[in-house]
From TrEMBL:
It comes from the Bacteria. InterPro entries: PfkB_dom, Ribokinase-like. This is Carbohydrate kinase PfkB domain-containing protein. Residues 3-289 form the Carbohydrate kinase PfkB domain. GO terms for molecular function: kinase activity.
Amino acid sequence: MGIVVVGAVFVDIKGYPIAQYIPSGRNAGRVTQVHGGVSRNVAEDIANVELRPTFVSVVDKSGISDDVINKLQRHKVNTDYILRTEDGLGTWLAVFDNDGDVVASISKRPSLDGIATILEEHGDEIIKDADSIVVEIDMEPKILNILFDLAEKYKKRIYAIVSNMSIAVERRDLIKKTDCFVCNLQEASMFFSEDYEENTPEEMARILAGKLKTAQLKSMVVTMGGEGAVYATCTGESGVTPPQKVNVIDTTGCGDSFFAGVVIGLTYGKTLGESCVIGTRIASSVIATKENVCPRFLPEEFDIDPTKFGITL
């Protein structure tokens, strides 16, 4: 079954200025539309490392959803557990400045009730052979409870990513059950109710190691933009992963691709520090392009032998 990814699909509508961006004015530019959504991006990133993930999600009944599914299938994502519903496709509208950073956005979330239906009907067959599970931790409690019960039943590791931390903070009891929780610096500040904007990566690594003990988390990674990422585990491992220098074109999806790299590493035998290096390399490849996901890699480029895990390329 490979890595099972559970979450939403979005269509990203992105606007880029062709001259100096003026926040309060009208800006001439170009508008693009690409397939997005945190979990959809992660599934495609994993597939682009030739690791054959399974995506559990919902879409609507439009031609756009046809395109989403067809693209995932071309990238060797198992789409057998994607359900079509009336309001299953989300939309994210974003405006970028001249540095490739998001300066304004509006998100219309889809209805994910169908995911609960999929898990109730097919959860055992999906999870029992999974190599690991990826979940958006800010999904509806009913979905998460079913998924965590299945993970406990079959002793599968769960890795959590967040798309809305204001919702995710209400899931602290479930986050404690995950094997690794990944978020950015601003989200970590919300999660721990402290301001970390002025801390160096070295300081943040020490802080994170201490916070894991008091919050009873197994492991956590915090991305710090141009300063790289920091990580810590409940067993005492902690450190800083420096960034790779690249020409920034578009930062959309880089956090998702970093997370995908971390999950790939942890699922297939790497330490948390080694997994963060994989995540950094994959994220760097996304930042340097206009795509939301990484280009094609081979598992061997990250010293991963997929045949040891029953994956046939």
